[in-house]
Hints:
mainly alpha; two-stranded antiparallel ribbon; two-stranded antiparallel sheet; 4 strands; 6% strand
Amino acid sequence: MDYQKIIDKYYPEDNELKRILLVHSRQVADRCLLIAKNHPELKLDTAFLEEAAMLHDIGIFRCNAPSIQCFGTEPYICHGSIGGQILRQEGLFVHAQVCERHTGTGLTKQQIISQNLPLDPDGIYEPDTMEEQVICYADKFYSKSHIDHVRSVVETAQSLEKFGPEGVRKFLKWVDLFE
């Protein structure tokens, strides 16, 4: 599977948004591949990790996030479900799930309802497979709005507090598993 061809299809211009997407996605992919190398006992599918990490944010261009050069109309929280729709149209059903399941440490039905998020409360937004968890975890260390900064574990945990204490606990379990 040629992830670059898919990125180029939806991001045809060489502009700042595409640069941000590519740098961020490469950061996430490289961290995933390092985790796979350091933890052979997890038996991670490295080809899938790289592909899915490079595509996990494919939906951002349809969102309204001017600080990262996204001038679409949808709320940013929807970028994962939008990416999932895009990748399903491309026939990449398993990759689509990564898009949908990487926000925070995953979103529960209860969180979607209680926070009145514009997502289908019957959708599945929590990472399930080990590869989904690794990509979700790796993504938390990199912000598209501060592309040159790598968050520490402490900074990352603090950034997750807005999703509630359960997300922080899940992240810290991943720290134990993946570091």
